[in-house]
Design goal:
heterodimer, A: about 375 residues, four-stranded parallel β-sheet, 15 helices, globular, disordered C terminus, B: about 80 residues, mainly beta, SH3 type barrels, about 0% helix
Chain lengths: ~375, ~80
């Protein structure tokens, strides 16, 4: 078994870091946003920030679907899960996301039949095995995850399974990025594009970022060298005055994406007119719901969820962190009232959440600053 | 087809995938056998799982797929055969 590949080679990493340093303008401050939570995780786990010049700042984006889910959607899922006829299924990370009155794990402890699954296809199997129960899958995720839900629903429809439905919370990556680009309080120079979302949607959807907003993009993989190389690609673009979408992760990502997955999604989903994002507010056409052809599988219709809105706890500053306005350690409850064991906000729940990544791997960084110091 | 190193696309395995809802969870697996729309696949740690392969059809034994939530969403290509 080979764990240390060339994408973790220390010599190569140092060489790339040196090249980044050589083209960094000492009088300029660069802000590069990694859109994806997986990238945030890699950056802190491997200390990539410490390899970069002080002038190059990595800003964490909104790319963790658990983290951007508003509390009202958690509460609505819990309402469905509490029904006696329902077996409620969801991914593991979703179990600990706090709603206004607790999380799914606590509701499970109180007797609700909530089961953690690894794939929506597991939820489908549970539905087959329990024909006298209603099985609901809590679907969440960006375009990486949406194809698995789409494929599951296509199989359910083909089988004529009537006791299976989906509470759909899938979101799309481009609208929140556009919202960030339009945000007056955020100045970004370039973007590290999400690698696996791009496996599905390809690189073309990011072209507006370079053409309309003048921001270079490098779609990147998830190993430390992937991140460093994508930073170098962006710095080269900035240095040479170029502005393009580049594909660092070409060993997996095709420029046109996965057409079969896109076709499957187009059949099963349609865009919601608007959807609420934690920290970013309502964003038009930024989320998916089941299409009319799959309305029979829509848990929102089956259980008439009311669409409640719940404000975040006042102390929680997830919103500012999600927009990149605050660093995680600058939140007033980071590491005190809000920890991975007792999260107040979703950013501390998911292992991909910026706050959890900072808490687990970034202590060295936050000891350097005054704000957020808990000594 | 060239033999592709399973570590090429990333470090996740079927039993250690980071967070499944996030894009980080792209797990490289090799196809061992195919039955209809599913394939028995193995990651670099030797873990095996049934993976839905409709979205990357046609699939062949020996290919390396990128999977997410039990569904293959992409194929990993050999060095020198990347998308240009």
């Amino acid at each position: 078994m080979k764990y240390v590949s060339e994408f973790r080679d220390a010599e190569l990493a140092r060489a790339v870091a040196a090249e980044i340093a050589s083209i960094t303008d000492p009088d300029r401050h660069y802000k590069l946003m990694e859109v994806c939570g997986g990238h945030t995780h890699t950056i802190y786990r491997h200390g990539i920030k410490d390899l970069l010049p002080d002038q190059v700042e990595l800003v964490h984006g909104p790319g963790c679907p658990v983290c951007v889910l508003p509390m009202g959607r958690v509460d609505e899922g819990i309402t469905i899960a509490e029904r006696s006829e329902v077996i409620f299924t969801c991914f593991g990370d979703m179990m600990r996301v706090p709603g206004s009155k607790g999380n799914l794990l606590e509701v499970k402890a109180q007797g609700a039949d909530i089961r953690m699954v690894y794939s929506p296809l597991d939820a489908l199997r549970i539905a087959r095995e329990n024909p006298d129960r209603e099985v609901v899958f809590y679907a969440i995720g960006f375009e990486t995850t949406a194809p698995s839900t789409a494929l599951t629903l296509q199989r359910a429809k083909k089988e004529g399974l009537e006791n299976f439905s989906v509470f759909c919370n899938h979101v799309t990556i481009v609208p929140p990025v556009r919202a960030l680009l339009d945000s007056p309080d955020l100045r970004l120079d370039a973007f590290i594009g999400p690698g696996h979302v791009s496996t599905v949607i390809g690189c073309r959807p990011y072209e507006f970022m370079s053409k309309d907003y003048g921001k270079p993009v490098a779609v990147a993989g998830f190993e430390p060298l992937d991140i460093l190389q994508s930073v170098l690609m962006l710095m080269r673009q900035l240095d040479e005055g170029r502005c393009e979408v580049e594909n660092q992760y070409a060993r997996v990502v095709l420029w046109e994406g996965n057409l079969a997955a896109l076709k499957s999604m187009a059949e099963v989903f349609e865009l919601r007119p608007y959807f609420e994002w934690r920290g970013l507010g309502f964003i038009a056409q930024s989320a998916l719901k089941l299409s009319a052809a799959y309305a029979d599988f829509d848990a929102e219709l089956r259980y008439s969820t009311p669409g409640v809105r719940v404000a975040d706890p006042k102390a929680c500053q997830c919103g500012e962190v999600l927009k990149g306005v605050l660093k995680p350690h600058e939140c007033r409850v980071f590491g005190t009232a809000c920890t991975p064991d007792h999260p107040l906000g979703a950013l501390m729940v998911s292992s991909e959440g910026a706050c959890a990544a900072y808490y687990n791997f970034g202590r060295k960084s936050f000891e350097k600053v005054e704000i957020g110091s808990k000594e | 087809m060239s033999e592709i190193d399973l570590t090429l696309p990333g470090s996740c395995t079927l039993d250690h995938d980071g967070c499944v809802v996030c894009s980080d969870a792209g797990i490289p697996v090799r196809v061992l056998s195919i039955e209809g729309d599913d394939a028995l696949c193995e990651d670099r740690a030797g873990n095996r799982a049934q993976i839905a392969v409709e979205l990357v059809a046609p699939t062949r034994v020996g290919e390396v797929l990128l999977t997410h939530g039990g569904v293959a969403i992409g194929k990993v290509v050999a060095r020198g055969e990347e998308d240009s």
